[in-house]
Amino acid sequence: MTRRYFVPELPLSGGLVALPNEEAQHATRVMRVKIGDDVTLFDGRGHEAEASVLSVGRNECQCTAQTAAAIDREPKCRVHLGVALPKPDRARELIERLTELGVASLTPITAGRTQRGPSESLIEKMRRGVIESCKQSGRNQLLEVRDPIKAADYFRTVDQATKLIAHPTESVYSLDEAKLQSDVAIAIGPEGGWTDDEVSDAVAAGFRGVTLGPRIYRIETAAAVIAAVLVT
């Protein structure tokens, strides 16, 4: 199994690289790397470099990296999800799946029927989860977890040309049609659904409805299904 480590300041020309503290601890304490081991480094912005472990300390790991290469494993359709997050344990599972699928960004939405808005600690755990999922999946581009926003502000500020809401509206859009676009924004509501005012705000802002059939899905299931359709 290839050992991958996140180095946000990866030198593109190669050379000596010290792993960031958390990555160094994982490499030395969990993976137990040794001098001479081959590893892969990535910067979360599309670059990766092959490297060799040069030195190992208690909480330190230095590598000699080759010239970094731009390796694009992103889907053709850039998917931007606005999601009223489920409970924390399910939110962490959600971010893992969306990162693996290649979603470009996730904006946590606070909706009228949101039971409890996301805490700062949850957002930070989700951002760390993105890194771990990129390491596991071979993705070189980090999914961007944005700051939480109220539903009305989200609908008003989304700038993608194709804007969809997971809710039946008079104007219904096909996911098969959406996947042909280069940039798509999709809003997924809380377990209690969108309020009438929120649906009206979305429609007024140019959002069109999409449905996933006759059954009702959990938030994380709906998000994963929509993302999977759009990126494949």
TrEMBL record:
<dbReference type="Pfam" id="PF20260">
    <property type="entry name" value="PUA_4"/>
</dbReference>
<keyword id="KW-0949">S-adenosyl-L-methionine</keyword>
<comment type="function">
    <text>Specifically methylates the N3 position of the uracil ring of uridine 1498 (m3U1498) in 16S rRNA. Acts on the fully assembled 30S ribosomal subunit.</text>
</comment>
<dbReference type="InterPro" id="IPR046887">
    <property type="entry name" value="RsmE_PUA-like"/>
</dbReference>
<dbReference type="InterPro" id="IPR006700">
    <property type="entry name" value="RsmE"/>
</dbReference>
<dbReference type="Pfam" id="PF04452">
    <property type="entry name" value="Methyltrans_RNA"/>
</dbReference>
<comment type="similarity">
    <text>Belongs to the RNA methyltransferase RsmE family.</text>
</comment>
<feature type="domain" description="Ribosomal RNA small subunit methyltransferase E PUA-like">
    <location>
        <begin position="19"/>
        <end position="64"/>
    </location>
</feature>
<dbReference type="InterPro" id="IPR046886">
    <property type="entry name" value="RsmE_MTase_dom"/>
</dbReference>
<keyword id="KW-0963">Cytoplasm</keyword>
<keyword id="KW-0489">Methyltransferase</keyword>
<dbReference type="InterPro" id="IPR029026">
    <property type="entry name" value="tRNA_m1G_MTases_N"/>
</dbReference>
<dbReference type="InterPro" id="IPR029028">
    <property type="entry name" value="Alpha/beta_knot_MTases"/>
</dbReference>
<dbReference type="InterPro" id="IPR015947">
    <property type="entry name" value="PUA-like_sf"/>
</dbReference>
<keyword id="KW-0698">rRNA processing</keyword>
<protein>
    <recommendedName>
        <fullName>Ribosomal RNA small subunit methyltransferase E</fullName>
        <ecNumber>2.1.1.193</ecNumber>
    </recommendedName>
</protein>
<feature type="domain" description="Ribosomal RNA small subunit methyltransferase E methyltransferase">
    <location>
        <begin position="74"/>
        <end position="230"/>
    </location>
</feature>
<dbReference type="GO" id="GO:0005737">
    <property type="term" value="C:cytoplasm"/>
</dbReference>
<dbReference type="GO" id="GO:0070475">
    <property type="term" value="P:rRNA base methylation"/>
</dbReference>
<dbReference type="GO" id="GO:0070042">
    <property type="term" value="F:rRNA (uridine-N3-)-methyltransferase activity"/>
</dbReference>
<keyword id="KW-0808">Transferase</keyword>
